[in-house]
TrEMBL record:
Cofactor(s), by name: Fe cation
Domain of life (superkingdom): Bacteria
Provenance organism: Ornithinicoccus hortensis
Protein name in the entry: Rieske 2Fe-2S family protein
Location of the Rieske domain: 62-168
Region called Disordered, residue ranges: 1-22
Species classification: Bacteria, Bacillati, Actinomycetota, Actinomycetes, Micrococcales
InterPro entries reported in the protein's UniProt record: Rieske_2Fe-2S, Rieske_2Fe-2S_sf, Ring_hydroxy_dOase_asu_C_dom, Rng_hydr_dOase-A
Iron-sulfur among keywords: yes
Length: 434
């Protein structure tokens, strides 16, 4: 390819001049957001927006952080870092899930230091104040007789489970619309019985980009055809296209999609599994999308040929060919429930330009590694896909950090990116309102 450069005497011009660094005014940037266009650079690069995102988005909404099989037994815990917050998720003695601030009630030390593990009680790493899994203070050494243990339990964080998924909300007044969402989504998830699976693999990938770039990338498949050779063995690259906009070259794939969808709808209806998609991606606090969709190839799973990656199907399904149940939650999670496994994804902000993407694969509790499934085959497609997405995110972070970056328009099949960003802007407006 030949690149034609303008003659040296002729300056390169754009519609808008290249900007230099200005102080960041989040309210002004939110107010002038242009729908249908990418956000301006400081949304992705500045400390101001990072802190605002933690306060207005991550500390105020229901956030998917883990699955029940990640903490199967009493005492099993994980810790989740969200900006200045650190939260312990622990299975209590009654089999319930507890979420607690990882902040000791003595002088404030982190209680648990590990990312995951198993404990009898929660013993603070500093002066050994000891708490039960439900947060009650059990022991504090050398206290006067007036000391009332009942006043110094670990602070609780709201936690809800939905079909084996664990959501937390750091706000003392969590959005009440989770109840309605849970009621409507539960029937789609129930047949897969995620809570009864086991974790077969988990990969933490740190992407070099803002959490919104990670999520915007996830909400479109404009890049899939060129960017994800392994995924598009089974994931139809027509995802997100309106019928009249499908390019001619994708028509053969679209014809296969229609046939596979018809088969899938029959298979679900026969088994009493809900099939109609629901899409409520903005205009509410707990915004989501659920859709059962056919897969290409054998139509069973995310493998190169589309055949199941685990021979032991979930919930004793009588067919592996159930496509994928796709579930999206604003702001930071997405899921694929298949006949043979469930894969969950959560994007957790680490810094303005760094995000942890945690991917967890679940198989039937009785599936035997090396016999029923090979972890390399199970995780192959999404490990590759995540790495490819991570590279897209890193390049975009580099681009939006340039003073020359000017937000460009979304294509028609990026409508879910626009919906995500519109949801985000609605939330910031609400937070910033006087
Ligand atoms: O995870 C999803 O929902 C898909 C995968 C690829 C792009 N995204 C729309
Ligand atoms: Fe936890 Fe002292 S800070 S026991
Ligand atoms: Fe992608």
């Amino acid at each position: 390819m030949t690149t034609v450069l303008p003659p040296a005497s002729q300056p390169v011009t754009t519609d808008h001049p290249v900007t230099t660094d200005q102080p960041v005014d989040p309210a002004a940037l939110v107010a002038r957001r242009r729908p249908g266009y990418a956000l301006e650079g400081p949304f992705y690069t500045s400390r101001e927006f990072f802190d605002l995102d933690i306060d207005a988005i991550f500390a105020k909404h229901w956030i998917f952080v883990a699955t029940e099989p990640e903490i199967p037994e009493p005492g099993d815990f994980i810790t989740v870092e969200l900006g200045r917050y650190s939260v312990i998720l622990i299975r209590d003695d009654d089999g319930g899930v507890q979420a607690l601030h990882n902040v000791c009630r003595h002088r404030g030390s982190r209680v648990l230091l590990d990312a995951k593990g198993s404990v009898g009680n929660l013993v603070c790493s500093y002066h050994q104040w000891t708490y039960a899994a439900d947060g009650r203070l059990l022991h504090a050494g050398d206290q006067p007789p007036t000391f009332d243990k009942g006043c110094f339990g670990l602070k609780k964080v709201a936690a809800r489970t939905l079909g084996g998924l664990i959501f937390i909300c750091l706000s003392p007044a969590p959005p009440p619309d989770f109840d309605d969402v849970a009621e409507r989504v539960a029937p789609y998830l129930a047949p897969h019985r995620l809570a009864e699976t086991k974790v077969a693999a988990q990969v933490d990938l740190v992407e070099e980009g803002n959490w919104k770039l990670v999520m915007e990338n996830n909400r479109e498949c404009y890049h899939c055809e060129a960017g994800h050779p392994e995924l598009t063995c089974t994931f139809f690259p027509t995802y997100g296209y309106a019928l009249e906009e499908i390019p001619p070259r994708l028509m053969p794939a679209h014809a296969r999609y229609l046939a596979a969808e018809a088969h899938l709808e029959r298979a679900c209806t026969e088994r009493g599994m809900p099939f109609a998609p629901i899409e409520e991606l903005q205009g509410r606090s707990t915004a989501f999308r659920v859709q059962r969709e056919a897969l290409d190839g054998a139509g069973e799973s995310y493998t190169r040929d589309g055949r199941a990656a685990s021979r032991k199907l979930l919930a004793d399904f009588d067919t592996p060919r159930l496509g994928r149940l796709s579930l999206h939650f604003q702001p930071n999670s997405w899921f694929h429930f298949l006949a043979d496994h469930v894969v969950t994804f959560t994007a957790l902000p680490l810094a303005p330009d760094r995000t942890l993407v945690r991917t967890t694969w679940h198989v039937h509790r009785d599936a035997v590694e090396g016999v029923d499934y090979d972890p390399d085959i199970l995780t192959d497609v999404w490990r590759m896909t995540n790495e490819q997405d991570g590279a897209f995110v890193g390049r975009t972070q580099a681009g939006v950090s340039s003073p020359a970056f000017e937000p460009g328009p979304y294509s028609t099949n990026e409508y879910q990116v626009d919906a995500l960003v519109s949801w985000y802007i609605e939330r910031l407006e609400e937070h910033l309102a006087p």
